[in-house]
Amino acid sequence: MVKQLDLRKHINNAVSVLKLNLPYDQTDHVPNIAMNLLAGGTCLEQIELRRTHEAYLNAPI
User: Fold this and answer.
1) Closest CA to 44 of 55, 56, 58, 30
2) CA 3, 44, 31 angle in degrees (round to 5)?
3) Domain range summary for the chain, segments of one domain joined by +
4) What's the pLDDT at 21?
5) 17: which residues sit within 8 A by CB, 6+ positions away?
6) Closest Cα partner for 35 from 7, 55, 11?
7) Are 18 and 25 spatial neighbours (Cβ–Cβ below 8 Å)?
8) Which of 23, 48, 52 is nearest to 33 (CA)?
9) 3-class DSSP string for the chain
10) Which of 24, 36, 47, 54 is buried deepest, with most CB atoms within 10 A?
11) φ, ψ of residue 22 in degrees (nearest 5)
12) pLDDT tens track for 14-50
């Protein structure tokens, strides 16, 4: 879906999360934040907790 909609380009053009885009760009962070919210996260610190959760890591984006 990301490739078909060229979502990577649209996210990078629409969102400014990072001051410096090296080695990652906006598209590497925005879906992670969205998945945290969908999984019930209420703050960015909870992303760190989910990085060790197997089901969260294997979820398709």
Assistant:
1) 30
2) 5
3) 7-57
4) 67
5) 26, 29, 30
6) 55
7) yes
8) 48
9) CCCCCCHHHHHHHHCCCCCCCCCCCHHHHHHHHHHHHHCCCCCCHHHHHHCCCHHHHCCCC
10) 36
11) -125, 130
12) 887 777 767 777 787 888 888 889 889 999 889 888 8
Residue found by looking up tokens 């945290």 in the block: 36
Q: What are 39's two structure tokens?
A: 């999984």
- Is the pLDDT at 61 greater than 70, yes or no? no
Question: Which two three-digit tokens encode residue 25?
Answer: 């760009």
Q: Distance between CA 9 and CA 24 in Å, rounded?
A: 13
To which residue do tokens 């990078």 refer? 12
Which residue in this structure is represented by tokens 């990072």?
18
